[in-house]
Design goal:
Layout: E1 9-12, H1 16-28, E2 33-36, H2 39-47, E3 54-58, H3 66-74, E4 82-86, H4 91-99, E5 104-107, H5 112-141, H6 144-147, H7 153-165
Parallel strand pairs: 1-2, 1-3, 3-4, 4-5
Length: 187
């Protein structure tokens, strides 16, 4: 799976001009964008397992609207954050969207900088949620990488060495400073 920093921002809007202009703004801001003209196409891609960092959707669209898309996305096992944008919003609609799980609700006209900041915050939240899920899974499975954290070359070598020694039925002395993680290598 790609890192969350590389995950595209999905842009769902039935207006091609909005998709193009907002997509260009996000791309200029160094964010990958995947545009969708309708909510059902985005939902089908999510259900198929396509990678999505943040889903940005207009609320008022023909067929499935943004609120229905939000509800459907929240039913997925690993839903991305959803940012809803609309020119027809009101306070009750915003409250309903936030209660349904929307990351944010942005009313038009909005500044592209505000939407970009909102998307970046949602992307960071998604990154943290995915990392948290990965670490919990690693701990449940007893994965050494989940207990000995770090990506430094020395830590990668240590994990490889411990993995190679694990099946050997012999005592092994792991030497290191206090707090270096040697205590978790004993299992």
């Amino acid at each position: 799976m790609a890192s969350v920093d590389e995950l595209p921002i999905w842009l769902v809007d039935d207006d091609p001009d909005v998709r193009e202009s907002l997509g260009q703004w996000l791309e200029v801001s160094d964010l990958a964008v995947r545009p969708f003209a309708e909510a059902t196409a985005a939902l089908a891609a999510l259900a198929a397992g396509d990678a999505c960092g943040v889903l940005v959707s207009d609320v008022k669209m023909p067929g499935m609207d943004g609120l229905a898309l939000l509800d459907a996305v929240q039913g997925l096992e690993e839903p991305p954050p959803v940012v809803l944008i609309t020119g027809h919003g009101d306070v009750p609609m915003a409250v309903t969207a936030m209660q349904a799980g929307a990351w944010d609700f942005v009313e038009k006209p909005y500044s592209p900088e505000r939407l970009e900041e909102c998307v970046r915050r949602a992307l960071e939240r998604h990154r943290l949620a995915l990392e948290n899920r990965r670490l919990r899974h690693a701990l449940r499975e007893g994965d050494l990488a989940g207990r000995l954290l770090g990506r430094a070359p020395a830590m990668l070598r240590l994990r490889d060495q411990l993995a190679n020694l694990a099946p050997v039925r012999a005592n092994v002395l792991v030497h290191g400073e206090t707090g270096s993680g040697k205590e978790v290598a004993r299992d």
